[in-house]
Amino acid sequence: MLVVLLPLAGLSVLIAFLAFGFEFRRAFLHAAIACGLLVVAFAEGLSVFSAINQLTFACAWAGVAVAALTLAWRRRKTLIPLLRARSYPGWPCVAVVLAALPILAGIVLSAVYAPPNTIDVLVYHMPRVVFWSQAGDLGFFPTKLYQQLSMPPFHEYVMLHVYILTGSDHFVQLVSLAAFVGCILGVSIIARSFGCGVRGQVAAAVFCLTLPNAILQGSSAKNDMTLAFWLVVAVCFASWRWDDFTREQTYGVSAALALAFLTKGTAYLYGPALLGGIFLAQYPIARRSLLRRLPAMIALVLLLNGGYYLRNISDSGRPLGPPSAAARGFFTFANDRFGVETTGSNVLRNATLQLVARPAWSEFAYQRVLAIHDFLGWDPNNPATTWIATEYTASEPGNHEATAANPYHVLLFVLCIGWLTALRRWGRAWLVCPRACRGGAPFLFLPTLAALARSTAPPAVHCHRAGSRSGHRASSIHRVGPSDSRGAGLDCTYPSA
Fold first, then answer.
1. Higher pLDDT residue, 424 or 274?
2. Most CB atoms closer than 10 Å: which of 37, 155, 196, 492?
3. How far apart are CA 187 and CA 207, in angstroms?
């Protein structure tokens, strides 16, 4: 199967970076960014010539594998000592691997056996992949669901490669699994950057590995796990050195942040918050170095997102697309107004999403939030901050990746913050917290919070019942210009059977 070209090319790129002397986890980060950039380059570049098809993708990734292995072969003298080295992992690492195997095996089984079936996937994640594969380019098509056109497309770019190389959707959900594994490795790197030893790095990896929502996202075709991975990579590079900001960090942070922006719109909120905490913790010389390199970082972000921005501007006049999910303006993405009431109400209501370990906890938190709203004279179901046909209710336990919470992990996180504050044994992490708070930056610097990031919006307009594997390819499509695609009135959802 041609789909093996993708992991083969990724492994070849990783071997090439190892041949250049990078430590394994560091080489993994560089290889991930390189493959991410190649995904964007192949999709955007071939789209210009309407040449997105199985042959071109197969040739492109085969070429990457050959080129990477050629570079590795030329520097094989560096690889030979690595192969001969007899370094064995300690028992903490072995324990994590043994614990991870059944979890990852279950995710693989779910991802391969079950077809893509969540609402968001059927409404816009998979339909746009099908249209792109048929048209051979990334141009807009007629639909009344603007998400299919304007949403950040990187995750769908990766699924497009998998979908075209396999000819079906059997393996598209493995993209999220790869991102989940990457998050586990990335979190351990960040723990090392904060001064943790082997056991601390293992503890961070276990924390990420056991996040309930991350496990569910790992077998989904949604883009949340991919976003989490790029945010983790960005923090990995940003925290690599505290006394300087090198060219390697500049490249890594800007590329990872650009790919995060190209994956999901919430990256524009989480990215600056995470990196802002790291920035405030760095030494002054590192801050000055970062500010000098900031124009180059912005240029790389604009370059990678340029095609996506231009297509949206040509259609709606906005780089991020229309302000709502539907043609009639329903389900707007932003609040109708901003202020203390809007922010306070949203913070209170969203804080209760994680308190679902026990029904009594959820009901208690729900009643307290209602009481606070009543005391302040706020409306908990204000139409300016709440989608139509929805209302704020007590959260309930669930196993759906769009709504599943991480209550015990959040509780553990809060307890650790309190414990470390009391003992004042922060190490480098102690530099982040007070400076971030004094500087007004949100307290969102820890990498594990990236894995907690998820969309809490209500379901979109259309829904199909999950069924058997479809391997769907529509018979034909009608290509239209940007102005014709608005309000075309076509229900272009992805069939589940």
1. 274
2. 155
3. 9
Residues 465-489 pLDDT 10s? 233 343 443 333 334 443 333 343 3
Domain containing 207 equals 90-323+350-357+397-462+492-497
pLDDT at 301: 94
CB atoms closer than 10 angstroms to residue 22: 17
How does pLDDT run across 372-393, given as a tens digit for each residue? 999 999 999 988 888 877 888 8
Structure tokens at 313: 């501007």
Asked if residue 232 lies in contact with residue 455, where contact means CB atoms within 8 angstroms, the answer is no
Residue type, 251: Y
Residue 276 included in any domain: yes
In a domain, 189, yes or no: yes
pLDDT at position 243 over 90: no
Within-domain flag for 220:
yes
Would residue 222 count as lying in a domain?
yes
- The answer to whether residues 175 and 226 touch, using CB atoms and an 8 Å cutoff, is yes
Instruction: Flag whether the pTM goes above 0.90.
Output: no
Indicate the SS3 state at residue 399.
coil
Q: How many domains does the chain have?
A: 1
Residue recorded with tokens 């790291």? 278
The pLDDT confidence band at residue 10, using thresholds 50, 70 and 90, is very high
pLDDT (0 to 100) of residue 474? 37
Structure tokens at 249: 């960090």
